[in-house]
Specification:
mainly alpha; two-stranded antiparallel sheet; two-stranded antiparallel ribbon; 1 helix
Length: 129
């Protein structure tokens, strides 16, 4: 059986040059077969272009993913550092609150001591008799 060989386009593992269309297809005229052959070439060529675009897009997306992963790692490190700083600040705040409470108690004690002070009329311990 005689056939018409398609051009040199290829898609994935398919090469349009390996596609052979029989000339005698149920009474179809030769121009109709040639038109179908052109259509096959067009589809194969378009498929090749789409595959190339897909490969380019895939590479761009992989680069973007890598960039986002690096940024995520950087932000995660910053977050962990901020958590550590937050914990240290909380501990310092607890210590500062204890000191303030101690100053408040000392202030109250001082106020009590000063309130118990000598009366104006009590001159006994001041060197007078």
């Amino acid at each position: 059986m005689e056939g018409v060989k398609c051009g040199n386009s290829s898609v994935g593992n398919y090469n349009s040059s390996s596609i052979i269309i029989p000339v005698d297809i149920g009474g179809l005229k030769n121009d109709k077969i040639m038109q179908l052959t052109k259509n096959i070439h067009t589809v194969v060529d378009n498929s090749n272009l789409l595959k190339e675009e897909f490969d380019e897009d895939r590479l761009e997306f992989q680069a973007s993913i890598h960039s986002f992963e690096a940024k995520n790692s950087e932000l995660e490190s910053m977050f962990r550092a901020l958590l550590l700083e937050h914990d240290r600040t909380k501990e310092e705040l607890v210590v500062a609150n204890r000191r303030i409470a101690g100053f408040g108690k000392a202030s109250d004690d001082l106020e009590n001591l000063l309130g118990i002070g000598k009366f104006h009329s009590d001159l006994f311990d001041l060197g007078s008799e």
